[in-house]
Write a structure and sequence with these properties.
It is a single chain. It contains 3 helices and no strands. The chain is an all-alpha fold. It starts with a helix and ends in a 14-residue tail after the last helix. The C terminus is likely disordered. Keywords: Cell cycle, Cell division, Cell inner membrane, Cell membrane, Membrane, Transmembrane, Transmembrane helix. It is a single-pass type II membrane protein. Its main location: membrane. It holds the Pfam family FtsL.
């Protein structure tokens, strides 16, 4: 009888230790899941913010502003337009607005 009690006591202790270990693992996994979900929500919010910033940067007004300020571009006008395929127009243009060839004599 004493031997059976000892075996049952060891079985109860082993099952108790296993149950405590599984509860610990479940809590640890739940905490990890919660952290991952929180990180996922944060990353989703960052993604939405970046998409809004990207859309704001791609507006026509923003592109035009960057072209003017950084690239020093300006709107095209007929007075600064040069068409090399139209020599007849060049002959009728005033001399001051004609582009000068390098090394050309006046």
């Amino acid at each position: 009888m004493g031997r059976l009690n000892l075996i049952l006591m060891i079985a109860v202790l082993a099952s108790g230790i296993y149950m405590v270990r599984s509860a610990y693992d479940a809590r640890r996994l739940f905490t990890e899941l919660d952290r991952s979900q929180t990180e996922g929500r944060r990353l989703d919010a960052d993604f939405q913010k970046l998409m809004a910033d990207r859309q704001a940067q791609a507006t026509n007004l923003r592109v035009e502003q960057v072209a003017r300020e950084r690239l020093k571009m300006r709107p095209i006008t007929p007075s600064i337009t040069y068409n090399p395929d139209a020599p007849a127009l060049m002959a009728s243009a005033p001399r001051s607005s004609r582009p000068q060839a390098q090394g050309a004599a006046r």
